[in-house]
Amino acid sequence: MNRELMGVFPLWKPAGMTSFTAVKEVGKRFGTKKAGHTGTLDPDVEGVLPVCIGRATKIVEYLTANDKTYIGEVTLGFSTTTEDSSGDMVNQLSVDRLISTEEASSVLTSLIGPLEQTPPMYSAVKVKGKKLYEYAREGIEVERPSRMITIYQLELLSDPRRNEDGTVSFSFRAVCSKGTYIRTLSVTIGEKLGFPAHMSHLIRESSGSFQRKDCLTLEKLDEAVEREEEEECLISIETALSMFPVLKVDENMEERILQGAILSIPEEVSNVDESVWALYNQQGECLALYKRDEKRAGKMKPEKMIRTIRS
């Protein structure tokens, strides 16, 4: 390719592929090693995985921070080492009573709001510089730091059904904050109902503003590459950063921004309750994200440079 492509490719990651491999495959098709995803999906999970290409890798952290929507399935009757169906069975207890739709729905409702979670041992969370799943593979159990997450919505999608092996399963839809483990949430749902449980299926329906309907598979990207239309598959940095209020600047101010200068907050927005703005030039290109300067009243400073004087 003659020039660097930049933007966000809305990948529908297939089940059976790691997020690392998915990013590598997308980058290969765009002819760049400069690619990064906005939130890991487990290998067995399919769904929305926005991949930042080129200069768009600078905004990964802002897209990662967004809320996520999942369609999950919990199965009551046994728990596993990984908290999903890929792990070995840990505890087993026959579901010897009827789990009604009303009871399941009530439990889900009770979990809406702030919730303390302890990441599963089979996760990418780091403890003392080492990922938890690395400890798990060595058979080492370490103390895991709990953290607060938020469940914004949690609704029952199917009536509880009894499976041939005596377990009981039902599906749910969850809208949650960054860092939420649906595997762990499934275990908690089981505990509330009085049974060991695990997550038996999961799809990520959305990640921030990226929805399932917006996504493309690797196969669709291959078709675009054959037609030399892969650039049309990218969502612009400007669209991806649409959650931030926009400030347009003139050419003189543009040059100062490209040099990372500290600027005065425009009077018309000085009283607005915003802490970060996206600064655009007259051509509609996002130059940088700026934030209020806590040390200088009425000033703002660079939060993230998207373009510089050299680019």
UniProtKB/TrEMBL annotation:
<dbReference type="InterPro" id="IPR032819">
    <property type="entry name" value="TruB_C"/>
</dbReference>
<dbReference type="InterPro" id="IPR020103">
    <property type="entry name" value="PsdUridine_synth_cat_dom_sf"/>
</dbReference>
<dbReference type="Pfam" id="PF16198">
    <property type="entry name" value="TruB_C_2"/>
</dbReference>
<dbReference type="GO" id="GO:0003723">
    <property type="term" value="F:RNA binding"/>
</dbReference>
<dbReference type="GO" id="GO:0160148">
    <property type="term" value="F:tRNA pseudouridine(55) synthase activity"/>
</dbReference>
<feature type="domain" description="tRNA pseudouridylate synthase B C-terminal">
    <location>
        <begin position="183"/>
        <end position="241"/>
    </location>
</feature>
<protein>
    <recommendedName>
        <fullName>tRNA pseudouridine synthase B</fullName>
        <ecNumber>5.4.99.25</ecNumber>
    </recommendedName>
</protein>
<comment type="similarity">
    <text>Belongs to the pseudouridine synthase TruB family. Type 1 subfamily.</text>
</comment>
<dbReference type="InterPro" id="IPR014780">
    <property type="entry name" value="tRNA_psdUridine_synth_TruB"/>
</dbReference>
<feature type="active site" description="Nucleophile">
    <location>
        <position position="42"/>
    </location>
</feature>
<dbReference type="GO" id="GO:0031119">
    <property type="term" value="P:tRNA pseudouridine synthesis"/>
</dbReference>
<keyword id="KW-0413">Isomerase</keyword>
<dbReference type="InterPro" id="IPR002501">
    <property type="entry name" value="PsdUridine_synth_N"/>
</dbReference>
<comment type="function">
    <text>Responsible for synthesis of pseudouridine from uracil-55 in the psi GC loop of transfer RNAs.</text>
</comment>
<keyword id="KW-0819">tRNA processing</keyword>
<feature type="domain" description="Pseudouridine synthase II N-terminal">
    <location>
        <begin position="29"/>
        <end position="182"/>
    </location>
</feature>
<dbReference type="Pfam" id="PF01509">
    <property type="entry name" value="TruB_N"/>
</dbReference>
<dbReference type="GO" id="GO:1990481">
    <property type="term" value="P:mRNA pseudouridine synthesis"/>
</dbReference>
